[in-house]
Design a protein that fits this description.
disordered N terminus, 359 residues, 15 helices
């Protein structure tokens, strides 16, 4: 007889090893319980596990969670998990290293809350973080870590006050990284044009679509089986059995429908921010990730929502033209996000620390 993990893997068409025991499906009976567990308030002990848990709540591409943590005393290393890379959408691993930077920023903030000062250095592919005891320093950004989410929905269309924009801009400040904050409707409409052009190119790319669909979790059982991926209800879509959702995807997930949705989402947003590093290398991509994560946390702390609209930077044939339109010259635009007042949606899951920590 198949155990629960094997049964779910078989029903999803996955190999039995695709769901690594001990999976969170065994630890939590329901999706809500798994969310509550992964997003529980930060605890002082066990320190290493708690720091990794909070780091893992960072934004990351396709919710692949492409990281491996190791802790030796007061040294924490974050390394890429190349088995979780997305070669179709991210062939040079740009988003992967941005994701590592996002996780590092969460870890910095959590460590500060617990009374540890963190310093980071990039060592090849790894981020090496040294912790030193310091007075605890709580912050609104650290408090926002368990409630931050990428909200793929229409916003209210309400403009953001100048003080709000100032705080969002300040959150993006990181050495070697520039932020372009855009609230003018005409400029936002132009960005929407690039997003739609990029979206069309991606949806016509069979490799991109296969990769995207492989990371979609159509219902709670699928999401609990892997504790990763793009949970359909977190994007405002219904939870459906996989056997029904996959055939319907070809009918309802269309280029024209998605382009209409993205246009409406941008029209309803208060603004857009574009992050661009001074150079295009791993250390700068990690720096972009730190600025990106702080932006998302600051938006959350201010009661705002945000989401990524990275199509213009993911489609190589559009990237330079998009950057030139923003006055970036030869610099690469790294990340594009929209923000505004919006609804709460179901939250995505994260794998428990035991599955992302290397002993």
């Amino acid at each position: 007889m198949l155990d629960r993990r094997q049964f779910i893997a078989t029903s999803l068409g996955l190999s039995a090893t695709a769901i690594t025991a001990p999976s969170a499906a065994a630890a939590a009976d329901t999706y809500d319980e798994a969310v509550k567990s992964s997003r529980a308030p930060l605890q002082a002990v066990p320190r290493d596990r708690e720091l990794v848990r909070f780091a893992s709540l960072a934004a990351n591409s396709h919710n692949t969670q492409p990281w491996i943590f190791s802790v030796r005393g007061n040294i924490v290393a974050i390394a890429p998990d190349f088995k979780r890379r997305c070669p179709a959408v991210d062939p040079d691993d740009h988003h992967l290293f941005v994701s590592l930077g996002c996780a590092a920023e969460n870890l910095f903030l959590a460590a500060s809350t617990l009374g540890w000062h963190a310093d980071a250095a990039v060592d090849g592919d790894r981020i090496v973080i040294t912790l030193e005891e310091a007075p605890p320093a709580a912050s609104a950004l650290a408090d926002a870590i368990p409630i931050r989410q990428c909200t793929r929905a229409a916003f209210a269309g309400t403009p953001a006050a100048p003080e709000i924009l100032r705080q969002l801009d300040n959150a993006c400040r990181e050495p070697g990284v520039s932020a372009i904050l855009i609230t003018e409707r005409a400029r936002m409409a132009k960005i929407a044009d690039y997003v739609l052009e990029g979206n069309s190119a991606q949806m016509r790319d069979k490799a991109f679509m296969r990769e995207l669909v492989s990371w979609i979790r159509f219902n709670e059982a699928e999401a609990l089986a892997t504790m990763d991926g793009l949970f359909a209800p977190a994007s405002g879509n219904p939870s459906l059995p996989s056997w029904l959702a996959r055939p319907l995807l070809n009918i309802f997930f269309t280029e024209s429908g998605e382009n209409k949705k993205y246009r409406e989402q941008l029209d309803s947003s208060a603004g857009v921010v574009v992050l661009a590093a001074d150079r295009s290398d791993k250390s700068h991509w990690i720096a972009v990730g730190r600025a990106c994560q702080r932006f998302g946390l600051q938006a959350t702390a201010l009661g705002l929502k945000y989401s990524f609209i990275n199509q213009p930077v993911e489609v190589a044939s559009l990237r330079q033209q998009f950057g030139a339109s923003l006055g970036l010259g030869e610099r690469r635009p790294d990340i594009v996000m929209r923000f505004g007042t919006g609804p709460d949606l179901p939250r995505s899951l994260r794998r428990p620390p035991e599955l992302v920590m290397q002993s």
